[in-house]
Amino acid sequence: MHRQSIVLAAFIACIMLAPAAAHAQEPQPDPAAIAAEQARQLAEASASGPRFQPGLYGPLGGCINEPPESERIAPTIPPGFTSTAVMNGGPGWQVSAPRSPIRTGEAVKLSLRDKLGTAVRWVHAEVTRPDGRVVRAGMPMVRDGSAELTYPDRFLGGVPTMPGTYTVIWRDRATDAFLACDGFEVVP
């Protein structure tokens, strides 16, 4: 009976210590390797221009590597206004895209608005797909109305959405200058 108790106690000890031993054998992340990977990703993003990142600024996401304000086209500031409020697409620009992930194959409504606009401005949207391919579509934006485009329907070469992150860059059609960045995410 005593021998059975010793064997049982040894068995219980092995069972209790096994998870701790297995956990101790798991490789721990190397902080230097993590920092190096983050630096590599940032350099890659910087080299490729503005990119949308879901969750960057909370649930709305946001863009990295946008051009400085001095290189952007400012929205319209009508007489009597001294400045524009900072909107979700930059100062005065309002952008819209799905704020929750959509399913593969769904069409996406994209829009840009100059909240204080007083003239007609031709704009185009460049959509960068997860595979890196870029497609464009354009239209006029009248005064403070929105330019609305549906992806992939209005985009030459647009294909149904596939899983991944899409970046939407809005540009002035006449000068190709950056206006605003937005994006959306597609899940299977």
Short descriptors:
188 residues, alpha+beta, Immunoglobulin-like, five-stranded mixed sheet, three-stranded antiparallel sheet, 2 helices, 12 strands, 22% helix, 35% strand, globular
- Ranges where pLDDT stays below 50 over 5 or more residues in a row are 77-90
Mean pLDDT over all positions: 73
What is the helix/strand order? HHEEEEEEEEEEEE
Strand segment count: 12
Q: From the 3D coordinates, which CATH architecture would you assign?
A: Sandwich
Rg calc: 25 Å
Describe the structure.
- The longest helix has 24 residues, at 2-25.
- It contains 2 helices and 12 strands.
- It has helices at 2-25, 31-47, and strands spanning 51-53, 62-64, 86-87, 90-91, 93-96, 102-103, 108-114, 120-128, 134-142, 146-151, 164-172, 178-187.
- It has one domain: Macroglobulin (MG2) domain (Immunoglobulin-like).
- Helices cover 22% and strands 35% of the residues.
- The protein has a 5-stranded mixed β-sheet with strand order 6-12-11-8-9, with no helix packed on it. Strands 5-7-10 form a 3-stranded antiparallel β-sheet, with no helix packed on it. It has a two-stranded antiparallel sheet with strand order 1-2.
- The chain has 188 residues and is α+β, with helices and mostly antiparallel strands.
